[in-house]
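Subject: for your reference before the review

Hello V.,

The reviewers asked for a structural picture of the protein, and I figured it would be easier to keep everything in one thread rather than splitting it across files. Below is the amino acid sequence we used in the manuscript, unchanged from the supplementary table.
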Amino acid sequence: MKAIKIKMKHCCAYSQDVCDIDSIYMDATNSYWKKAEVYDFLKRYPKSIQVNIPPYPFLIPAVSSTGEKYVRSEANHTSADNLLKLPRE
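And here is what came back from the structure prediction:
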């Protein structure tokens, strides 16, 4: 499954913080999933979702210092998280 695009939280359209992502569009279901839903899915099925940008890193579940569930992409040679490079709606 691939993450195709993202929706940011209200007033965070240009944020470069993965915690500000509201939902992620998945190609397999042709729908947006809230980031907590993606987190829960990845806890059950690790390495099952990739970002649709080369080198196609996998999404990883994470929890913020305030206890908020979110996801990020695996680290690679780029400085910014590849998830934030997806088109935004």
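For the response letter, the relevant points are probably these. The longest strand covers residues 2-8. The chain has a mean pLDDT of 95.

Happy to draft the paragraph if you're swamped.

O.
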